[in-house]
Amino acid sequence: MDLSLDDAKRAARVLRDQLPDTDLTHSKALEIVAQQLGFRDWNTAAARLPSQRGMSAPVPVLRSLDEARAREFYIDYLHFNIEWEHRFDYAQSILYMRLRRDRFVLDLSEHHGDGTPGSTLWVPVGDVTALHKELHATGYDRMNPGIEVDSPGGPTMEVIDPFSNTIRFCQPTP
């Protein structure tokens, strides 16, 4: 199962945050999430979902140099969702934000020293052809990636963000 206990708890917090005008308690939100995941109740879900007490997957940090272009590329084109954003309290503060699409989590930072422009990420995907069609349909005119069928590991589609970071979406071959 790909979902962890921490993910389920986070889902309950998001549910509560999305419905602020209701009397939805955290306990009730946990029960709803458990049922959405196919469990009888939260106690059953908590007993069966894996915990993230040890190390979990790393979150790469990529350098971002222009907030508008980052949002256009990662949100409008690649369809990431913003998990959270952070700015210091002073005016014109630089942005640090966490993005997520499915299990792909990525941080973008405008902070000097975070990430190095020109980095490369390799991301396994279930169907690179479907992703290719989805991205092509966005109408993003700055990118028109193809699929390299003979790439090591499987068919691969490569996109380059506005800051020269490369993301290789690969459909691993068995």
From TrEMBL:
Keywords: Antibiotic resistance
Keyword Oxidoreductase: no
Alphabetical GO biological process terms: response to antibiotic
Domain of life (superkingdom): Bacteria
The VOC domain, residue ranges: 54-172
Coiled coil: none
Similarity remark: Belongs to the bleomycin resistance protein family.
Name of the protein this chain belongs to: Bleomycin resistance protein
Biological classification of the source: Bacteria, Bacillati, Actinomycetota, Actinomycetes, Mycobacteriales
